[in-house]
Amino acid sequence: MPHIRLWFSPGACSLAPHVALREAGIDFEPIEVTFESVSSEFVKLNPKKRIPVLAIDDEIITEIPAIMTAISQQKPDSNLLGRNDLEIVRTYEWMNWLSGTLHGQCFGTLYRPARFTSKPELHKDLQEHAIVTIKECFDSIEHQLSDIHAVGQGFTVVDAYLLVFWRWGNKTQGIDMTDYPRYSALASAVLDRASAKTVMDVERLSSRI
Question: 4-78 adopts what CATH topology?
């Protein structure tokens, strides 16, 4: 069996692959990283200075869609990417949009406006607009969901990834997650899974934020 390690930060987007690893029943070593004290060793590991990072033996993998793919490949019978070709396509459709738009653009602007402008006086305006675009994304998620799973009739990595942003929404001023009942039902279903309960304990998190 390969030696698998996951570098994570509690409550960050790394929560999604953390859930996926435990859902698949994969043996791995969780390694906690704090944003306040990124070590030089971690920077050597991932010069992008971002989590999560997945290592499979000596192979270092970054970026959520790639990491989720690698996890699924370790346990293909877990169907973490979906149960047929179309579901797998839909899973990547979701993951690319979540990672690029909702995470990178929307929450990225809210949490780190300095990445998008060198003018501090613009930070507040950027953050206020980020709230608007996050709500638009949440409206889109709510519209797309028809069940407690985002893809098909079973759990996929998309459900775990959506949990991340639902939790972030709960702690964002100006956003009321009760406005998104189908999204909240999906998040509750994920939190009821044994894999997510274990992750909440390991990362010392409450369920909502």
Answer: Glutaredoxin (3.40.30)
